[in-house]
Amino acid sequence: MILARSKNLTDTHLFYYVDEKYLSEYERRNWITKTFLSDDYTYITNIWSTVKKTAPQNISNELASKYQPYYDMCYTEYEKNLYTYLVPEYELKLKYKEDKYSQCNKDMSGHKLSIESSQISIRKSTASIAWRTLWGIVSGVISLALIGYALALLFTFSLITLFFGVVVGAVAIPFVVIFLRQREEIKLSKESIKSSKNDINKYNSEISECQKEIDELNKEIKRTESDISEAKVNLAKAEKKLAELTRKA
């Protein structure tokens, strides 16, 4: 059975690749390898395991000298191909994580700049409220004084005072308009401050999320770098072992 399935110990390619187009989106995103030990290798290995358990020791030793190198060659060739595939795959994964890490840092820097901009806006709006409050008080006092003076002139019931009362009343109108405008501008400034504070809270929340993602990416980058180093070491071992097995064969 072993000889039949292994084509008289000549078929050492007892592994196969899965075409990437047959992998699901989930598998591609999670960097699943495309190199697998074949069913033939598993079948032959199981048979050989049974032979070693049931055959007399002297016969088992004699068969092992013929068959074990074949199994070693198959598995070592599989390992070589596996790690040959994994090294660039891990390097691609590392680049993806590093690009994502860089983008997260850019996003966080952008959020911090937005917070600074919102803080500047709050300071400007606060200063505007103070200035407009003062200007509103002054314009209100002036307008009240002018209106009071105009009314006093109008109630004297003389043509001259009536004329001056109308003039003084007309002069008071711009100050009334200024007073009313300051109230509206103060209201807008307060709304701007409220909006800026909401933006700051939102950006702080986004910065917190970015920081969590950056911390996780740091861990993943370190793990992937470790995977690359390990895969390279295993590839070198497989190549060395395969070369030794080939010389012995």
Keywords:
single chain; 249 residues; mainly alpha; Helix Hairpins; two-stranded antiparallel sheet; 5 helices
Question: How would you describe this protein?
Answer:
The protein contains five helices and two strands. It is mainly alpha-helical. It has one domain (2-248): Orthogonal Bundle (Helix Hairpins), CATH 1.10.287. A two-stranded antiparallel ribbon has the order 1-2. Helix 3 crosses helix 4 (57-154) and helix 4 (57-154) runs antiparallel to helix 5. The mean pLDDT is 82.
Short description:
With 249 residues, the protein is mainly alpha-helical.
Q: Helix and strand layout, with pairings?
A:
Elements: H1 2-5, E1 15-17, H2 25-29, E2 35-37, H3 39-54, H4 57-154, H5 159-248
Helix pairs in contact: 3-4, 4-5
